Amino acid sequence: MTKGPNLKQLAEMAGVTPGTVSRALSGTGRVNDQTRQRIIALAETLGYQPNLLARTMRTRRTRTVGMLVPLGHDTLQHLSDPFFNTMSGFVADELADRGYDLLISRVIPRDDRWIENYANSGRVDGVLIIGQSNQLAVIEATSLRYRPMVVWGGQVPGQNHCAIGSDNRAGGMMAARHLLERGCRNIAFLGPVDGPEFGLRLDGVRYALAVAGVSDGPLVFPTHYEPSAAFEDALAVLGRLKQLPDGIIGACDVTAISVIRALARLGRSVPGDVKVIGYDGLPLGELVSPPLTTIDQQLRLGAKLMVETLLRRMDGEVAGSQLIEPRVVIREST
Q1: Domains in the chain, please, with CATH?
Q2: What pLDDT is attached to residue 230?
Q3: Nearest to 25 by CA among 59, 49, 1
Q4: Cβ contacts of 194 within 8 Å, gap of 6 or more
Q5: Closest residue by Cα to residue 84 from 257, 262, 252, 321
Q6: pTM value?
Q7: Confidence (pLDDT) at 120
């Protein structure tokens, strides 16, 4: 197998300095487009392979981003969960397009330094955290000392950490209003309730029902997030009710799908007996029967914004939190 040229040899062939070749291939620094394209084409033709270890040692950059999934709120959850699968896929795509690798870790927090210990391990250039779980205080404290960190989650007044996420309160209001427009009046909220995201969704539901004059709602039934446990929780909750709600809001799509399964087990139809709406906008929602009406968080857009914001913060730029406007996706479950 023929060995490709080294950096110095490639520079001599291109008639430029090694520094120009390095900047052209890494996409950093100032190199005019014509020269950059000529160097890239020559490198591809000759099979040039950069010494990534040497570049990492020289720049102190690993070209790797860490994604941490804290599960202090529900240790039953796994990375195979449909939400984490979807979000990590979108994030990996965005990073790959920018020449970065993704390193994913599921974390059961044991102390207040789990983020800093990971960030200082030398394996990553920055950290994405998916969900605030019950770790808001730790995330907030860490953000005062460690800047290349972006969180997918809710936003609370006065927070310091950078968070990208849907407007959860607005999304909760949309879900409640949609069921009200479908004639529902006895509305329940099932799913996780801990953490800023879920709390804000529930606040939005309560506000919309209060404005509509539904003073005795919603019924709130906390459940696990993990799919199997969520199904068992939903089945137990709905099975013991003397009168079923006419509308159910799932705190997330996984919960809403579990509710549909539980109602089918109890011999009830959706949307005939009970109308069900979820929250997330997961592709999985289109495949269940009936297809799930949901509040779409625009997760692909969220992944793009998280990656762009993190890379800017890694470069020392000022980049703050952003809210994504959710939208209702109407299918057959309502």
Answers
A1: 7-59 (1.10.260.40), 64-166+299-325 (3.40.50.2300), 168-296 (3.40.50.2300)
A2: 93
A3: 49
A4: 73, 133, 134
A5: 252
A6: 0.79
A7: 84
